[in-house]
Amino acid sequence: MRPLAIRRREARLLPPLAVLVRSMAYVDVKMRWKKDASFDAVPVLSQAGDLRPLVSLAGLLSPSPTPVSAVSKLRIPLEVPDRRVISFLRRFPAAFVESVGPEHNHPWFRLSGPAAGLLQEEREVFAARRADITSRLRRLLLMTTRRRLPLRVAQGMLWHLGLPEDYFRCRDYDIAQDGFRILTTGDSVCREEEEDGRELVLIDNGEHQEMPKSVLQMDAIRRFGSMEMVPIPLFQSKGLRLKQKIEAWLEEFQKLPYVSPYEDFSRIDRGSDVSEKRVVGVLHELLSLFVTCSAERRRLLCLRQHLGLPQKFHRVFERHPHVFYLLLKEKTCFVVLKEAYMAGRDTTIEEHPMLAVRRKYAGLMEESREIIRYRRSGKPFPSKHEDHEQIEDSEDQDHTQLRQPGKSISLCPNRGLLFTVFPGE
């Protein structure tokens, strides 16, 4: 028999001391989700799931009656939560007025007076505050690693940034004057209506300008006069108590170096607490750019690679409940930046110019629920708007106008607007 070979253990190099210290200092933060009723009372947050399709449908409809068939097949693109678009339109009578069509008694809808006024106000706000609104898209591109975004991803962020949904499609906006351009990458030739292989980039690529300061850096300058230490504002939830070891870890976490979302982070160890603080800072800066300082958690997943976030960055929301709040609504999880709603005036986050318009849209949704409640009880609704008081008269008038000979309504596919066409024009 052959003697058993004696295996020699290969000499292994000991890990550096920094790795040992980091592993021992790690604290596994696990906290149960605690509901905060104050966020559920904010209409733009509690009704966020219906607010986006309502505004989108308001942009497609017009003050003149429109057949429901013109928008009935847009349920998936508009992300209408109801199974049918007509059911969604009937849930908001304060925004959409229903009438009977000229043939086969098909339902037609038009915008109410307040909804048409809000649509016009939204366009006026964008025209007046265009530089402020488009600068938020520019900051988002500067936060990315390549200073560019796929056009599909950028299109999905327009709603959160307060930009018109046809900002990239309509030539009237002329995105070049805002410093943007669209490039086609790859060998395939893309048609104008397709967005595969197209990217949104900055014309100057952000090379010949100073990088902007983040909201946390401006807050540190306001509070301490310098950026030597940049803590993250914390806001404790009601009824949420932290363990002593977690509180100690949180105090040390605030003292860690801060890396701006606009700086290079390639030298940072991905498993260190400094990297985690950078992830918190990136998400804090991202949410501060949005209209409501909130977004669906699943919508942030498409930005993971472009912002240099780890694969399971969503755990940051659970590890830092004093910074972010998870709003669970209708089987959807929304991430809310607490500082925007709990700091009051003691914050450097600037209110988005489009926030006031979104609040008015949410007010129409609340008024729609009141109208439906009064209809079920058989009582007349004491509306503040003349448009709601004369709904029946307007429906009869629309029905008469639709039956006029030689008059037709056509839908423009590019802008989604309705035009009345008369013979001889």
TrEMBL record:
<feature type="region of interest" description="Disordered">
    <location>
        <begin position="376"/>
        <end position="408"/>
    </location>
</feature>
<dbReference type="InterPro" id="IPR021099">
    <property type="entry name" value="PORR_domain"/>
</dbReference>
<feature type="domain" description="PORR">
    <location>
        <begin position="34"/>
        <end position="369"/>
    </location>
</feature>
<protein>
    <recommendedName>
        <fullName>PORR domain-containing protein</fullName>
    </recommendedName>
</protein>
<dbReference type="Pfam" id="PF11955">
    <property type="entry name" value="PORR"/>
</dbReference>
<dbReference type="GO" id="GO:0003723">
    <property type="term" value="F:RNA binding"/>
</dbReference>
<dbReference type="InterPro" id="IPR045040">
    <property type="entry name" value="PORR_fam"/>
</dbReference>
